[in-house]
Structure formats: C-alpha cells, structure tokens
Amino acid sequence: MHANNTEWWKNATIYQIYPRSFADSNGDGIGDFKGITEKLDYVKSLGVDAIWLSPFFKSPMVDFGYDVSDYCDVDPMFGSLDDFDAFIAAAHNRGLKVIIDQILSHTSDQHPWFIESRKDRTNSKHDWYVWQDPKPDGNPPNNWVSVFGGSSWQWDTVRRQYYLHNFLTEQPDLNVHNPEVQSALLDSLEFWLKRGVDGFRMDAINFCFHDQSLANNPAKFDTLGEYGELPPVNQYDYQQHINDKSQPENLAFLQQVRKLLDRYPGTMTVGEIGDDNMVKIMTEYTTDNRLHCAYSFELLTETCDADFLRDIITRSDKLIHEGWACWSTSNHDVPRVITRWNKKDTDPKLAQQRAALFWLLQFSLRGNCCIYQGEELGLPEAEINFEELQDPYGINLWPEFKGRDGCRTPMPWSMNEANAGFSTGTPWLPVKPPHTALSVDQLEADSNSLLHRFRALTSWKNSLPILANAPIELLDNTNDVLAFYRDDGSQRLLVALNMGYEATELNVDALEVLADHTPAGFDHSIEHNLIKLPAGGAAVLAVR
C-alpha cells in the first residue's frame, strides 16, 4: 500500500464494480456479492488499491439502485448483509479497500421516509422532502428541470402539493436543510462505517441543497441560435442551474460528514460533482475539512486532445494543489473510453495503444484515479438495440440519446461459456460478441494483451513514489503532446504523452536525461533537445 496508511487514497487506483454486471453466482442473470467475492483474486491481480461498488442498497431499481428504499440493507438481488460482510472481509484479507456509493440528495418514493412524508402536512416527516404548493393556476412552483428531462416537480394527489425531484419522478429530493434529515443521513453513513467500509463515493453530492426562495433558473442563452446548429436534446441543458444545486449550505454539511469520518481513521470520501462551475466547486468541496477528493465529468467528455487536457489541468490547478482530484475517463454513466476517445476509423491496434495511453495519463497526474470494470480488457461501447434497453434515461430520449446501457453490459469472463461466463441464466443486459472475444480467459492467455499491459502499468505506477504527491507543472506547448513535470524537490520527472493520431515531437530546452522511466510499450526517441513520439507514444524521463 502506501507509506501513510490513513492517506492510502491519495495515490490509489480505484476499480469500479457495477454489481449487476460483474459476476452472477446464482444464475438469475444479475450479478451479486457472492459473484464479486469469487472474483476478488482477479481484482487483486490488477494491482489496484480499492474497489468502488455502485449501489447495492434495497431499491425498486427504477434507476438501478440510485433510488434507495433502505439505506441500511442489501437488495435481495445482490444477496444479504451477511454476504456483504463476507465480501468486505475477503477484500480486506487481500489488502483491498472498499468504497461504496452513497446517495444523500434523494431517495426512492418507496422509502418509508417518503411514504410517511406524503401522508399529510403534519406528520413527523412532513418536511423531510421538498414539498411546495402549486401556483394559483395549478402549475409547478418554478421552472426547474429534471436531469432526465421534464419538470423537476411532480404533483402528489395525497398532499395536493408538488414534490421536488432532480432526477426521476420516483426519486424525490430530500430536504437536507432539515437538521433531522442531516442526522438521519449521517446515521446511515455510520451504519456502513461500523461494518468496515473504507469510504464513500458521494453520488450527485452538490444536489443536496436547493435555494429555499425557489427562484427560477435563468436560461443558458438568450436565443436558441446561440446553442449552435442544433439546440440540446435534453431540456436540462437549456438552463443555468444556479438555484437547484451547488448551494452554499452544502459546505457546512460536508464538514459534518468529514467530522464523522475523522472518527474512523483511514476512511475517505470522493464526491461526484456535475456543474457548469465544476472545478471551482470541486475545489471548495475538497478544502477546509470537507470531502477528501472530488470526482468529476471533466474527463468523461468526447474530447481528449492535448489542448483540452491542458485547459483542464490549468483550470484544476488549485484543486490539484490545495484540494485533491480523482481522475476518471470512464464509468457507468458514459460510453466506454476506447470508443469515446478514438475516432471511428482508428486502426484497432492504435485504438488499443491509445487505451493504454489513457491509463498512463491517469496514473501520471497528481491525484487518485478510477478505472471502470472491463476497461482493463479494452471493452468497446456495446451496441444495444432499443428493445434491449433497460435504462429509463435512454428510453426517454431515444434515439438521439441511447442511454447508459452500452457501458453497463456484463463482464466477459470466459469466451466459450454461455453469456461469456457471467451467468448461467439470461443476463439482464446482453453480452455482445465483440465483448465475448475480449473475455478475461482470452486476454490472460495472450501475453501482449491490454490486460497484461494494465497490470504492468499499475506495477510501474506503484514503483514511482514521486507520482503520489509531487507537484505538477504544465509545459505550455501547442502541438498534440501533453507534457508536464512532476517535481518533489529531490527528483524531477518529465511526462510527455502524444494524444494525437500522428507522430509528433516535443522540443525541451536544455534537456538532460538522467534516467528513462517510460513503461514498456510506449515508444519514443531522443535527439538532443527533441523527444520524438509516434502515435500513442509517450516518454517518462528523470531529468535535471
């Protein structure tokens, strides 16, 4: 692990497991805790430090676990609390930390808290959710729009009021302004801390509070023409979301969360933050005893050229040096990176080389990083037909937006078994042929596969302590090379990554190379002050 075990998370490689799609032990077509536990030796072999589990709490599964009906229980489809305890013990026995998803901004409409709250306007939980009278004409209180499209307000016939939902109508927003709600949420965190979890990934953490004046959100632009050739598909993208999320009250609440975790040394929080002012908010949320680090959508975009990455690192300077960043190029919400960050006509060998380059990028930046299950196999985005869709987001916005199912299909373990060894039953999402051909057993047998390169890269990362904490200094160049120094005062590393599709070069004044620490498989050559990099090439050099 790391020298300071209480700060193990600072340079950690975190492996995200989507439980529904990892490994099914009982043949019902859905992954479960026993299946995950059976695969822990594989996870350990990847050289990662921690596992992040997507939601497994009791839930109606309208949004696949992000609609929680019981914060303190395991949904039966994944097993039991005993199965969870066995899993966490097995993970810890292998030196793996466990981070679990936590959803604090909203619950399911089937949560007992909401069932009680909607009974009338005087019950003990009447203000645990955000209720509001209609306008005199019966319309919603304001113009706020849900992330999934449509109004953020749902009419309830029992209370004859609207309730707020920033996501699906089945996901009512908690009124976290209420101290009783805050206390109940903190209690739910402590329930899992007592069971031994090492941290929480805080889902949509900047959605916990809203502007209590309920002021309208302003439009993003004055006219539709300002959006460009086509306006957005989703109504959500037409507004500046300055009143329905990212409110100042959240800062004090996060300090309460941090105070709780400080009672359990070695635990951590990583917050998911989506906002137009993402970097600013991430910095606020990871300083002054709030979150330990922040996870954003900055690298989950369609763009990965060097200019774009330089801009992100420049804007993230304060976060990187005063807070702490969590870098991710893939997760369960966006198309897989090998598809998203490669052109459609990219040569397959170059596409795989670039996939390894994306890992090297994450491993070389200051911060920790998340790797989504299957990325180590080079899985492309799966093509899901409309009739196969499970994601309500995709069903609502099809065909312009195909939803998130393409990155959520089952993990392929064995090419010659039914459903690639994921399940003996019918999987909840299909296993597509391109994934079957990239199954774990096939890549294990190929010493040149991406799987073996991933293991080599995590080993390389752990062999260079300078990558843990050394400050980062960006080189200002204009070609396809992203270049920066990592300097801890005793050693100075130059990292140069060719993010383009053609060979290029980097000119460095007075280049004096002391040692070459470039991981195997990344080609480069050096002539005087010139570093020459082929497409997908990189250099990591100790310099004076």
Describe what this molecule looks like in 3D.
The protein is an alpha/beta fold and 544 residues long. It has 16 helices and 21 strands. It has helices at 33-38, 40-45, 81-93, 112-117, 179-194, 249-262, 278-285, 306-315, 317-322, 337-340, 348-364, 392-397, 433-436, 440-444, 450-462, 466-469; strands spanning 13-17, 50-53, 57-58, 70-74, 97-103, 131-132, 153-156, 161-164, 199-203, 268-273, 293-296, 325-328, 368-372, 472-474, 481-487, 492-498, 504-507, 513-516, 525-527, 530-533, 538-543. The strands form five sheets. Strands 1-2-5-9-10-11-12-13 form an eight-stranded parallel β-barrel. Strands 14-15-16-21-18 form a five-stranded antiparallel β-sheet. It has a three-stranded antiparallel β-sheet with strand order 6-8-7, with no helix packed on it. Helix 7 links the parallel strand 10 (268-273) and strand 11. It starts with 12 loop residues before the first strand and ends with a strand.
